[in-house]
Design a protein that fits this description.
The protein is mainly α and 184 residues long. The protein has one domain. The chain has eight helices and no strands. The longest helix is centred in the middle third of the chain and has 26 residues. The radius of gyration is 16 Å and the shape is globular. The protein starts with 6 loop residues before the first helix and ends in a 16-residue tail after the last helix.
């Protein structure tokens, strides 16, 4: 994101990447077949999950200032969108800041849980059950949770080889979800 790119163009690239992540998170298969709750919170958590995977991929580019700037930009755009969404839902100005702060805290907690799981420190199914389905064990035994964990692992593996240049151009490289019964 360096070079001759203007600040406005950089922001537009980050926004394009973010809205592609959001479009992926809104895929009906997540709610219909993986049984992620089709609620404001469920959709928020899917956006956080996919954003956390992209940010994890960007952090792997530890020598790239552009990757760091893109990760930071994604975070800013994510929470600007959450601020806007809360206001559209009628949340008052005084409460918006507190709610956005709580959402940021949720992002960091979930992101750490997913990182720990992908690093083998805890089962990914446990993190997904707690964060997407409400509490540990809530859906852990249901076939949708292992299927969603398999999707997340496949997506992360794909992202690890996804070119940084493609991410910088707004291509998130997130795999399309398959129906759980079709997941390998």
């Amino acid at each position: 994101m360096s070079g001759g790119t203007t600040k406005r163009t950089k922001r537009r690239l980050v926004e394009d990447l973010y809205y592609r992540i959001v479009a992926q998170a809104r895929q009906p298969v997540f709610y219909r077949d993986y049984l992620v709750p089709d609620t404001i919170n469920g959709r928020f958590d899917m956006i956080l999950l996919l954003t956390a995977l992209i940010v994890r991929r960007l952090r792997a580019e530890s020598q790239s200032e552009d990757a760091r700037a893109l990760a930071d930009g994604l975070f800013e755009v994510l929470f600007a969108d959450m601020d806007r969404s809360l206001r559209e839902l009628g949340v008052g100005d005084i409460r918006v800041g507190k709610k956005v702060k709580a959402m940021a805290k949720a992002y960091y907690g979930r992101s750490k849980a997913y990182d720990d799981a992908l690093d083998g420190k805890q089962p990914l199914e446990t993190a997904l059950a707690r964060n997407l389905y409400g509490e540990p064990g809530a859906q852990e035994g249901a076939p949708e949770v292992p299927a969603l964990a398999a999707y997340v692992r496949r997506t992360m593996t794909s992202l690890e080889s996804h070119p940084l240049e493609a991410l910088m151009a707004g291509d998130p490289g997130i795999l399309a979800p398959s129906e759980p019964r079709q997941a390998p």
